[in-house]
Every structure is written in structure tokens, then in C-alpha cells.
Amino acid sequence: MASFSSSLPQSSFHREMAASETARLPVAENFVSLAVYNRPVSCRSAKTIYRKLCGLKLWMLENLSIQNSKRKHEQKNEFKMQKIEDKDQLLDHSDPRHQREDIQELSAAAVVSNESSLSSNTRHEENSSPNKQFDQFRKIGTSMESSHFQQTQTSSITFQGRPTSLSIAVIGATGELARRKIFPALFALYYSGFLPEFSSSHLLKNVSSTLNVYIFGYSRKNITDDDLRSIIASTLTCRIDQQQNCDEKMEAFLRRMYYLNGGHDNREGMSKLHARMEQVEGEHGANRIFYLSVPQEALQDVASSLADGAQSQKGWNRIIIEKPFGSDLQSSHQLTDSLLLKFNEKQLYRIDHLLGRNTIENLTVLRFSNLVFMPLWNRNYIRNVQVILSEDLGLKTPEGYLNSYGVIADVVHSHIFQTIALLAMEPPVTLQGEDVRNKKVKLLRSIRKLESSEVIVGCCSPASGSKGTAKSGKATPTYFAAALYIDNARWDGVPFLIKVGRGLITHRVEIRIQFHQVPGNIYRGHIGNNTDLTNNELILRDVPDEAILVRVNNKIPGLGIYLDASELNLLYKDKYNIEVPDSYEQLLHDVIDGDNHLFMRSDEVASAWNVLYPVLQELDKNNLVPEQYELGGRGPDNAIYLWAKHGVQWMDD
Ligand SMILES: NC(=O)C1=CN([C@@H]2O[C@H](COP(=O)(O)OP(=O)(O)OC[C@H]3O[C@@H](n4cnc5c(N)ncnc54)[C@H](OP(=O)(O)O)[C@@H]3O)[C@@H](O)[C@H]2O)C=CC1
Ligand SMILES: O=C1O[C@H](COP(=O)(O)O)[C@@H](O)[C@H](O)[C@H]1O
């Protein structure tokens, strides 16, 4: 064991810890001994970390070698923390008193006063935060990122006095999702410089604000900090473009990680977690994020115990909740009520990682920043919209999870409805989370209730290996197709066709926007028999190979006039030579940033379930029976008739 506490400032707690030979709990890396992992780890780089956890010498080397890049990150992080503080001082538009558009419409004066209050905050944030521009660069991922940032940031740093750390507690830390997705995403944010990090250079510069990040894991397993570190070490990797010093970054990240065995009473467990967090955070201000990655049945107990026992009193608290968000209107109401009893709406971040995909963010960028599409985005020009999430046999998500929840609760209710909301909503006033959520909920409330005649539900044939049984005891629906209508002036009569399925022949995730035929087309005689094929189409493809495609008609070269339908193709991997961050990474970054536009607000959750209500009832009464389909096939035959009824020939298979 090596200690390097001598030259660094210490709180009384830290002094005690450092002095005590018997002190077992490691606290912040700069104050205490490094423990050596006591479990073997499986991957090569993790073994290297095991070897390298050897104390002071390493620490000095590490600091010498990465000091420059750390300085850069510290500056970034100072901005980010400043921005977070500002965000949480914004008017709470998620408060039901402010959020309902109909109330806003009735009370123009209130709207003006609310919006001016919000926009003045917004203006302040935009002025004070070059981070905004920086984030744009990060999302594009160009190598200009750091130089741009360095050029713009120095004049705008201000500290608001109090040093503040950020603690992220993963509740359910030993679970499948935490290991496979959450910790790796946190690590990626850490090594990319998006988590605040303490560095001695702060002290050298005598800067009073100390920023730091701590990661906590919580479950009921009787393991130690080092056990958790060993488990997590085997799951961490650096992206191809971030390989430099990967082992050191892992090691530094793992040293910030602590485990708390909460035992079988979460009330007691959360108090213990709080005490442990306070120990580690020291006397600083402390913002906390709690990621609830626990089984649905444990969610309410965990949330309520946490609310009472583990929230920071010295900063903000944000709670991330995993999907599914209930299984129908009633259960989601119950969950929402129990959450809102203990938390404010603006503390809640309901995460659906599929919404963190680049394609989803691109959807609104494409819509609202291209004049070429804006005038066409309505029933006069758009004939139908297709939202497709078709998965083949190579699923990475574990069977246990897939078999627990059917695709309706897991994918349709959140991912598909949110995609439609973003695609079809009116333009929000700003990109602020609550502005976007206001427009999404208005759209969701305009979707006509879905009748079972407009729906095909399917189940993989048992003979082909799907043993899934939903929580209800019924077979888990693995396929869902439907035609939705939005009853508003923009979309009246336009079918929105959904198709979600697992175990299908193709793996394809895309949004297709098909335009009407050209009225009075003078080239009609030069098109083949299938005039549908000549409709213009805009396709946002996520899988395979992210791309934006526009189908246009062009002349085939040569004598005579023969038309061909061709695709203008922006293939991302050709244009941008970067590894796209995982969607969990993207969304965790948003939570840290206080940006909630991709997280469903309680009223959005309820509105989406409301649309699905008649179908769920029919399924419940067995009036709607899932059709069996063959694994590796095209899904239920009747789906084809559903498309045909709405004049659509599916193009994806
Ligand atoms: N796995 C996936 O791919 C996805 C999962 N999700 C959602 O994420 C959540 C977690 O899923 P997953 O990781 O697969 O589940 P797991 O069952 O693998 O893990 C659950 C975790 O929660 C802990 N836990 C269980 N019961 C309690 C309790 N009463 N109090 C405190 N901790 C408890 C478990 O540890 P211990 O028993 O030791 O306490 C374990 O660490 C679920 O809500 C799921 O719906 C969402 C999308 C995808
Ligand atoms: O939540 C889900 O996501 C996975 C896709 O996750 P990814 O990390 O592989 O993009 C999907 O396969 C699954 O059906 C769905 O439940």
C-alpha cells in the first residue's frame, strides 16, 4: 500500500483516515492509500491495471504525463459545472402549473411572463457558456474541438464561490445493465474529459473551487470496493480514437469508484450510502446523480428510500429511471405518482437509451435547420411516415431482459412514440428541454387512440426457440405494427406506420418519410408501371450504417427520356471518420448537463400510454391475439395487409 497524502490539503475526516492504519474505506484518490484489487480480472488491459496500481510513483508519472490534457479538461469541466448550476436555477417549466400548453394558451399574460423569465435565463446561459459551441463541436467530433474551446473559454470563467463535486451512484451496480452499459459509458465520459476531475494543478494555481467526480455502486451483494472495481475493470475499453494512456485512464477511473452493500432494507441502505458519500465528498458542496438500474419491482422502494435518505443537502439531485415506464396507463400512473410524491418533476430523467442515438438528435437538426425540408413538413406534401425498428437474431441485449417485457412497453411506448413526437411536433421556442417537451406532449396528445383494427401484434413461434413469457404470464409480444393518425391541422390524414419486431430477417432501424406524387407530372409517361417507386422519399437510416438518403428522380443517360429513382446518399462512416459515442454516454452527458429534452416528462408518459390504451385492453381480454411468426422470417403475414390498407408498400424487406 502506498500513500501520497503528505502534500495535499486534508479535511479532518481525511486526516483521520490517512492516519488510521485500520481505516478500510478508501476515499478520494488524493487523500488515501491505494488498495490493490483482491480479485483476478479477465481482460488484458485490466490485468495491466492490477499490476500498475502501485502508488506514488505511478501517480507522479501519470500526473506528469497527462497534466496538460488534464488542464484542458479542468477548464472544460469548470464551464460545465458553472452551466449546471445555472440550469438548475431556471424556472421550473416542468411544474404542472407551467407545462400545459392549453393553460398557456388560456393565459397569455402568464405565458409572456414565464417565457421571458426563461428566455432571459437562456440568454444568460448562452452568453456565459462557450460550452454550447463546444458541445456542437464535440457532437460533430472534429479535431478542432480542443483548439476551438481553448480559444473561447478563458475570458468567460467565473466561479460561484462554493467548490462542488459530482457523485454518480449506480443503484443496481452489480446488474447486467450497469456492467454492460452504464459503467462503460461513465468511463467513456471520464476519459473524454466530460466528468469533473480533481487535479493538483488547481492547488498549484490556488483556485478555490475544487471539482471532482466520484462513482458509487450500490446493491445488496456482499462485496467490497475492490470487488466492484475488478468486476467493472473487465468491462472497460477505450474507443479506437481514444487509445492513448488507456490503462492509466482506467486505473484513475476505478480509483474513484466505491461500493456500498445496502443490505435487504433499502431505507437503512440509503442512509449508509448517504453517509459514505458524505465521507468521500468531504466538506465540499455535492451534486448527486442516482441511476436506478434495479428491477421494476424494486424501483418504488429504492426511489422512495433514496429520496428520504440519500439526497444531497449541499447541491442538486437528479434521478435516472430505466425503462419500461410502467406497462400500461394504470401502472405508469402509479409509478409516476409515487415518484412525484418524493421528487420534483425536474429531478426525474426517464432514460430510453435508444433516444440517445445520433439519428434521433439528427431528426430535429434536419427538420429545423434546413429550409429545403421545412415547407414540406405537412400533410400537403407528406404521404406517409414509416418508423421501423426491425431486429434480427444477433441481439446484444440479454434474453432475460427481452423476455421480461414485451416490445410494446419496451420499445413502442417510449422510443417509437418519442421518435414520432420529435418528427411531427411544432417547432419549439428554443432547444431548452421544457420547450421541446411542451411541443412533444402536445403532439402525443393529438395522436388518435389506437384501435386494435389498426394493429398487428406478433410472437416468435415457440418452436423456434422463444421461450419468453411476459410479467403478466402471457406470451411476450415480440412484434408490433400499427397505423397511427395525428388529429391536427399539420398531419390530418397522414398515416404514421410503425413496425417493431425481434427475430426478423433483417436488422434495420430507420425512419422513412414518403412524399406525395408530383401533381400533373409531365413525365408520367416516362415512368414505369409502379409510380409509387418514383415518389420522393427522405430516409434517416440508423442501422445498418447511419445515413441520410433522399430519393429523387433523374434521367438515365442516353438517347430518349427514361427516368430512374436514385438515392442521394450521405453515409456517415464515409463522411465522418469517428467512432460514435454509445447512446448511454450521450444521455448521461445530457443528465450531467441538465438537458432533459430526450427524457420523457410525466405527462408525455401518460399521453403515450393513453394512445395505446384500447389495444392493451383488447390484448388483455384476448380479443387481440398475437400472431405467431417464424424466427428469422418477415413477421406476421397480416402486417402486409395493414400496410396495403393504408396504401403503403413496405420497402424495407
Ligand atoms: N439489461 C438491459 O439490457 C436493460 C435493462 N433495463 C432496465 O434496467 C434495470 C436493470 O436491469 P438489469 O441490469 O438487466 O437487471 P439485473 O437483474 O441484472 O440487475 C439488477 C440490479 O439491481 C440490484 N437489486 C435487485 N433488487 C434490488 C433491491 N430490492 N434493492 C436494491 N437493489 C436491488 C441487483 O443486485 P442485488 O440483487 O445484489 O441487490 C442488481 O445489481 C431494469 O429496470 C430493466 O428494466 C432497461 C433497458 C435494457
Ligand atoms: O432496449 C433495447 O435496446 C436494444 C438495442 O440496444 P443497442 O445497445 O444494441 O443499440 C434492442 O436490441 C432491444 O430490443 C431493446 O429492448
From TrEMBL:
Pathway: Carbohydrate degradation; pentose phosphate pathway; D-ribulose 5-phosphate from D-glucose 6-phosphate (oxidative stage): step 1/3. Residues 365-650 form the Glucose-6-phosphate dehydrogenase C-terminal domain. Keywords: Carbohydrate metabolism, Glucose metabolism, NADP, Oxidoreductase. Residues 75-97 have a biased composition (Basic and acidic residues). The keyword Ion transport does not apply. Residues 170-362 form the Glucose-6-phosphate dehydrogenase NAD-binding domain. One of its GO terms (molecular function) is glucose-6-phosphate dehydrogenase activity. It comes from the Eukaryota. Pfam families: G6PD_C, G6PD_N. This is Glucose-6-phosphate 1-dehydrogenase. It comes from Buddleja alternifolia.
